[in-house]
Design brief:
The chain is α/β, with parallel strands linked by helices. The protein contains twelve helices and five strands. It has a five-stranded mixed sheet with strand order 3-2-1-4-5. The longest helix has 28 residues.
Length: 326
Amino acid sequence: LPLYRQSAAFSRLGIDLPRQTLARHMVRIGELIEPLVERMRQIALEHDVLQIDETRVQVLKEGGRTAQSQSWMWVLKGGPPDRPVIHYHYGPSRGSAVPLHLLEGYAGYLQSDGYAAYGAVLNDPAIRGLGCWAHARRRFVQAQKALPKGKPSQKLTQIIAWIQKLYALERAWQELPAAQRAERRKSEAAPLLDKIEAWLAQQSAPPKSLLGKAIGYLRAEWPRLTVYVEDGRLAIDNNAVENAIRPFAIGRKNWLFSDRPEGARSSAALYGLIETAKLNGMNPYAYLKLVLQELPRMQADSNLDDLLPWNVDPGMLREIMLPPAV
């Protein structure tokens, strides 16, 4: 909720909490939890499968920039299956310097869309680029929707049907262990990918048309779009990290912008902490309350691991949720 609405709600309860006070609270909390959030990012980078995406955010008062300037919230999703992590990072730039910083020292699979800023990261031989079939499919579906009614395109009907088949196979295999899923992909999905590749080699369309753009994207991304077949742990698309962005995007419709960069960075820290807690099956209110109680008491960063969601004793969270003794 926007802080002005929270302030109004408190006022109706007879509590005087101006928006400026709430904003200072958010910034201070963001600063407090930053070491814990950074530790979560490090754990995500230690695992060899990672997804990345970015979304817009507006900051009104940032040195050297107008209030209308566009900034960005970058989001990582990774970590071992039993210790998943969502990490948000605020950056005024959408350039390659941001993912290069975020992924410094990472080695493994990196799944993203075809945005050019990821090219600098993917030049690292330690990183294996992985494409997103949802982005490829979306372009063909858009081209299909733009056709006049009653005039279907055989090209579009065929390629969309093949992509839908790839997704149908993934749904059928979603409960399989990773090793078995990889075997099925090589035996059933790989031949279908070969058909798509042969079809792609024969296609041409005006490059500025919707069909031409869809074909161009598929052709440019093709080497990365086939990588998911080689490892059953990999996803066919980047939808998981896009879903991780959704809570932020929904909130943005209400609060519209951050006033200052400090607020945007605090939002990033809080969104990451709460979404990671939810992803690990925790009550986010109880977990946040525990963190705010225990983190100020810690004397060394080495104790941070005790507050990671997968290390917290569920009994502590239950105690936090109990009503106060009368």
